[in-house]
Design brief:
7 helices; alpha/beta; about 280 residues; binds guanosine-5'-diphosphate; Rossmann fold; 8-stranded mixed beta sheet; about 35% helix; about 15% strand
């Protein structure tokens, strides 16, 4: 058999099927999803008095805590924004109530209310009484109040003032109308055993408020090492309005705004009462 004189050519390399593939997309975990939702937090309005707060149909979550308990850090950590709770630290604004919107821009599904910190030693008596009055009224009567998130320093546990504050809202917690979540902050400063003990003590203190209908939770939290952050974001997201409700509320709000714009401007003491609004 004659040999083929042609130089043996190497067999052509088999095409390797190499369709460029996007890196496999891992589905976001529930915590990641919740954190992405919490990241949507944006400033909505600040008010010096409760009667300046806008009527709100969305679930409103009030953040409360002693000055220095870590409330601003918790809000900033949850929202993953360094300056989200910045306004509440501004001189002259420390007694204000700051509201934030969460969820889709066109149809927010939750409101966070950053309430004035309490227990600051240097505040004079009249300011303390005023605080008490503001907080009591807000916690007792604010209709949209859906939950209270209370920051308590994990190294100190509940103080007298913390418990006093809870008394204002206890009747609504017991009926289940208002949920309660306690964040034991700065948990990075405790070792595992101390953390477990702080949790146990807080649970015992909250036991007195428990009832069949109450929704009360307590968790260790740290803005520094992020303990509890994903869990808390998930709990908060679970309290958001449904997409249908959020859309309906947004539409009603828009219709009201348009109706108001068609009217004569309201006198200053009848309208927004000087509350600063940022529609973002
Ligand atoms: P607020 O007055 O309740 O708003 O408290 P801040 O958020 O301003 O925090 C008060 C102080 O506690 C600041 O010095 C914070 O840096 C510190 N702090 C807040 N959260 C944490 C935390 O999770 N870990 C640690 N180690 N320090 C914290």
């Amino acid at each position: 058999m004659a040999q083929d004189p042609r130089p043996k050519s190497k067999p052509a390399p088999r095409p390797v099927h190499k369709t460029p593939q996007a890196p496999r997309q891992r589905a976001a975990t529930p915590a990641e999803q919740a954190l992405s939702w919490a990241h949507s937090a944006r400033f909505f309005i600040t008010a010096a008095r409760i009667d300046q707060l806008p009527f709100n149909e969305l679930p409103e979550i009030a953040f409360v805590g002693r000055s220095n308990a870590g409330k601003s850090t918790a809000i900033n950590t949850l929202g993953q924004q360094r300056q989200l709770a910045y306004a509440s630290k501004m001189p002259g604004r420390t007694q204000h109530i700051n509201l934030f919107h969460l969820g889709p821009r066109e149809a927010p599904n939750q409101v966070w209310a950053d309430l004035p910190g309490y227990g600051y030693a240097a505040v004079e008596r009249s300011a303390k009484l005023r605080w008490q009055d503001v907080m009591a009224r807000y916690l007792e009567v604010r209709r949209s109040l859906s939950a209270v998130v209370q920051m308590v320093d994990s190294r100190h546990g509940f103080t007298e003032l913390d418990l006093q504050l809870l008394q204002f809202v206890a009747p609504r917690v017991q009926t289940g109308e208002v949920k309660l979540l306690v964040l034991l902050t700065k948990a990075d400063k405790l070792n595992r055993k101390e953390g477990a003990e702080a949790l146990r003590q807080a649970q015992a203190a909250l036991g007195e408020m428990a009832s069949e209908d109450a929704d009360i939770g307590v968790t260790l939290f740290s803005g520094l090492n992020k303990t509890g952050v994903g869990d808390v974001a998930q709990i908060l997201q679970g309290w958001a309005a449904s997409p249908e409700d959020a859309l309906r509320i947004a539409q009603e709000r828009q219709a009201l705004k348009e109706a108001q714009e068609g009217q004569e401007p309201l006198a200053d003491d009848e309208g927004t009462l000087g509350a600063d609004v940022d529609e973002g």
